[in-house]
């Protein structure tokens, strides 16, 4: 399938339904039902479900651009997580909930979009458990306008087989693709602002120092996109080393991209009515979610030290095989 045939209608739907006004309203406690209804009605939630179970039968690399589009629009719902959850549930012959489903790789970490999810697929170490989100007692992290939730409690519900690498690896890949999408949007917004904002009779983008900042920002953005595409290329049951490579690259780039965007925009970037902070706040949240670059760097280091081949051969085998 041509990527554009899939991406264009999805982007049109998001642009119409997930406007910044809608995003802010949900963040401020408004209902997400209307937005979720639009997304569910589009049929994209079953993109990863096999055709024999009534889905589109697409692969994770096929929908990676869709996940980037979700990140670029700061969609305040676990859309990508629900796509993966529905695929896992379908393969286990378990009926998926109608509402948004989030992935919980660890009960010890905040769960992005946990406050707006209705169900959760929880990694319990030896199996996955599908439960109502209410069982996990979601509560706010205290971060202004964040929809992430701290959770507790013992999940109870239907039990599913656990992927070899658990949910943390695939969850980290989703964050990597979301970061890549937000980074691309931030590059566009920041470059446009630098071309339009005039000081001392000329656009600030004409200053060599800002051009250098924007060039480095673009390099980080492209690195994020390559990392996300590399990571998703191996599907849902992704090896740890591949997920680690994607998450280390994107998480390390996230604060640099956010800092450059705010440095170029100045004071307007932090104003609530401006789009920028919707994206930069999510970059910082997704950077830490499901393991920061520090966590995944340790995973990579441990796997490398356990191997008995050269570093080049190990990279070929563990990351690019």
Commentary on this structure:
The protein is α+β, with helices and mostly antiparallel strands and 321 residues long. The protein has two domains: 3-161, Acyl-CoA dehydrogenase/oxidase, N-terminal domain (Butyryl-Coa Dehydrogenase, subunit A, domain 1), CATH 1.10.540.10; 167-318, Butyryl-CoA Dehydrogenase, subunit A, domain 3 (Up-down Bundle). Helix content is 55%, strand content 8%. It has eleven helices and eight strands. The chain has helices spanning 3-17, 20-27, 33-42, 60-72, 79-91, 166-196, 208-232, 240-265, 276-288, 293-306, 311-318, and strands at residues 101-104, 119-123, 128-132, 139-140, 149-150, 158-160, 198-199, 202-203. The strands form three sheets. It has a four-stranded mixed β-sheet with strand order 1-2-3-6. It has a two-stranded antiparallel ribbon with strand order 4-5. A two-stranded antiparallel ribbon has the order 7-8. A hairpin with a 4-residue loop joins strand 2 and strand 3 (128-132). The mean pLDDT is 94.
Q: What's this entry about, in short?
A:
It is built from 11 helices and 8 strands.
Given as residue ranges, the uncertain stretches (5+ residues, pLDDT < 50) are none
What is the approximate shape? globular
For the termini, the CA-CA separation is 24 Å
| Number of separate helices | 11
Sheet with most strands: strand arrangement: 1-2-3-6
Q: Could you estimate the helical fraction of the residues in percent?
A: 40-55%
Order of helices and strands: HHHHHEEEEEEHEEHHHHH
CATH topology of the largest domain: Butyryl-Coa Dehydrogenase, subunit A, domain 1
Biggest sheet descriptor: 4 strands, mixed
Q: Which CATH class of the largest domain applies here?
A: Mainly Alpha
């Amino acid at each position: 399938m041509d990527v554009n045939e899939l991406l264009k209608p999805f982007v049109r739907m998001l642009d119409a339904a997930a406007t910044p006004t809608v995003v802010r309203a949900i963040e401020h406690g408004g209902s997400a039902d209307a937005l979720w209804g639009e997304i569910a009605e589009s049929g994209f939630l079953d993109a990863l479900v096999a055709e024999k179970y009534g889905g589109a039968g697409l692969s994770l690399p096929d929908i990676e651009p869709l996940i980037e589009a979700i990140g670029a629009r700061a969609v305040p719902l676990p859309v990508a997580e629900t796509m993966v959850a529905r695929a896992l549930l379908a393969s286990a012959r378990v009926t998926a909930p109608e509402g948004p489903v989030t992935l919980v790789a660890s009960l010890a970490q905040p769960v992005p979009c946990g406050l707006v999810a209705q169900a959760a697929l929880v990694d319990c170490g030896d199996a996955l458990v599908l439960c109502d989100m209410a069982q996990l007692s979601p509560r706010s992290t205290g971060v202004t306008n964040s929809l992430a939730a701290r959770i507790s409690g013992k999940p109870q519900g239907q039990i599913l087989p656990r992927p070899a690498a658990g949910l943390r690896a695939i969850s980290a890949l989703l964050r990597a693709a979301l970061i890549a999408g937000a980074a691309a949007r931030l590059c566009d917004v920041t470059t446009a602002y630098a071309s339009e904002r005039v000081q001392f009779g000329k656009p600030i983008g004409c200053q060599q120092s800002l051009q250098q900042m924007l060039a480095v920002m673009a390099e980080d953005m492209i690195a994020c996109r390559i990392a996300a595409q590399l990571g998703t290329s191996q599907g849902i049951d992704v090896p740890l080393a591949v997920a680690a490579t994607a998450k280390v690259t994107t998480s390390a780039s996230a604060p640099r991209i956010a800092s450059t965007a705010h440095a170029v925009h100045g004071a307007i970037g932090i104003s609530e009515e401006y789009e920028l902070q919707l994206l930069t706040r999510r970059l910082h949240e997704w950077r830490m979610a499901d393991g920061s670059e520090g966590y995944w760097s340790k995973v990579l280091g441990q796997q490398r030290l356990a191997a008995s081949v050269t570093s080049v051969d190990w990279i070929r085998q563990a990351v690019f095989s």
